[in-house]
Design a protein that fits this description.
about 425 residues, alpha/beta, Rossmann fold, 2 domains, 7-stranded mixed sheet, 5-stranded parallel sheet, 14 helices
Length: about 425
């Protein structure tokens, strides 16, 4: 049985069924990290411009909607939740400066975001320096909770190892023990390298009989990738694992289609709802998609989906679902600690099981990773009548946390 005071996260999870449309304030004084009247401020530093801006914008919407629902049900410890945000332009130095400014000038009680794991790695030590909890709901490099671990960092999104292992599990089943040729394609920074490394290691761990024939690492937000694509086409892999996302994956898909790649190679990539929506009729039917929180495939999200759609005129991406979940996690920690103070919240969450719109999720004590699954499916060849967009063919494969993440011992080894 939960202590009676721990109600914020459960109330927030239930709020999506009420159709609440209250908005968090965009102005007002910052609140001290304790209970009382007034407001408490939280900050979202994320990518709001450029080709991957949709991820940051959608995640921010999830954070804002969660704050609005908290406020519609009395706030948190008697305070209204105020959200401030800033664009990091996918630049680590800018992200770190944003976080420092939010802490020193806005007096935030918690930080949320960003998109880029490189930016997250720059923000994480700043939050720890000032003892402010930071919640990663989009960036997911394994080393954020490995080499970079601090007691103030929490991650509600599947990490790069979990994501790549889920794709590898799916591919292992598809290969049927026969030798397959594989290539990889990923953005040239820590997330891309770690995701590809995790995928190849997972194939080895699963004893997949694969032959690696090509690897390409274009820059993040590159608009012309013909040189990289031509090398993949020349290698003629049976399977291509692509760790790009957002606008970069849209660019890849359109340019790859011009090379006839999808007729020759089975592509495995983050074909989530925003990418599929952006592609429209150009969505690559038969490609294998993976997604961290597909709104159409998670039981219990229907009320949230309807509320989000009514407010924003679109169905929620995984970034919105995970942004909302991150605020629920913070709110649960605040209620459990009965304080907004960072040290108390950071101590309250490890090992806790948090009620969220996705169901109950446990924050693993050893590394603060949420024990959540990853989802894999095949891109459909027609529009889904219920949602008016191309999604995945049923059934959707759910890769459980217990089989795709590193053990606590493995995470400890990453820290040296």
């Amino acid at each position: 049985m939960r202590p009676a005071r721990i109600v914020a996260a459960a109330t927030l999870a239930a709020a999506v069924g009420t159709g609440s449309a209250a908005c968090s304030s965009s102005s007002g004084s910052a609140a001290p990290a304790s209970g009382g009247s007034g407001t408490v401020t939280i900050g979202e530093s994320t990518t709001l411009s450029g080709s991957i801006a949709e991820l940051g914008q959608s995640g921010l919407q999830g954070v804002q909607l969660a704050a609005a629902d908290l406020n519609a049900h009395g706030g948190l410890l008697g305070r209204k939740v105020r959200v401030v945000s800033a664009d990091d332009a996918a630049t680590p130095a800018t992200g770190a400066a944003n976080v420092r400014s939010m802490i020193l000038n806005d007096h935030v009680a918690a930080i949320f975001g960003p998109v880029s794991s490189a930016v997250a790695a720059a923000e994480e030590p700043v939050a720890a320096e000032y003892q402010v909890p930071i919640f990663f709901h989009t960036s997911n490099d394994i080393n954020l909770l490995g080499k970079g671990f601090t007691r103030y960092a929490f991650q509600v999104v599947p990490n790069t190892v979990m994501e790549s292992r889920a794709a590898a599990d799916y591919l292992a089943a598809q290969s049927g023990g026969k030798q397959i040729t594989v290539a990889t394609f990923a953005p040239a920074y820590s997330f891309g390298y770690d995701t590809v490394g995790g995928f190849l290691q997972a194939l080895k761990d699963l004893h997949v009989n694969d032959k690696l024939v090509a690897q390409q690492f274009p820059p993040l937000e590159a608009t012309s990738i013909s040189t990289y694509l031509s090398r993949i086409v020349t290698a003629r892999p049976q399977y291509l694992f692509n760790a790009q996302f957002g606008g970069d994956l849209v660019t890849f898909t359109k340019q790859a289609d011009g090379y006839g790649l999808f007729g020759k190679t089975k592509v495995i990539a983050m074909y989530d709802s925003p990418v599929l929506s952006a592609l429209g009729p150009a969505a690559p039917a038969g490609a294998i998609g993976f997604d961290r929180a597909p709104f159409w495939a998670i039981p219990g999200l229907s009320s949230f989906n309807s509320q989000f759609h009514a407010k924003y005129g679109a169905w929620p991406s995984e970034w919105a679902v995970l942004g909302y979940t991150a605020v629920q996690t913070w709110a649960y920690g605040v209620e459990k600690a009965h304080s907004f103070a960072g040290p108390g919240v950071a101590a309250a969450l490890p090992g806790a099981t948090v009620p969220t719109i996705r169901g109950d999720i446990t924050i693993r004590a050893c590394d603060h990773q949420a024990e959540v699954p990853e989802y894999v499916g095949t891109v459909a060849g027609s529009v889904d009548a219920a949602y008016g967009m191309t999604l995945w063919n049923p059934p959707v494969f759910t890769a459980p946390f217990s089989t795709i993440d590193y053990s606590c011992a493995q995470m400890q080894a990453l820290r040296g």
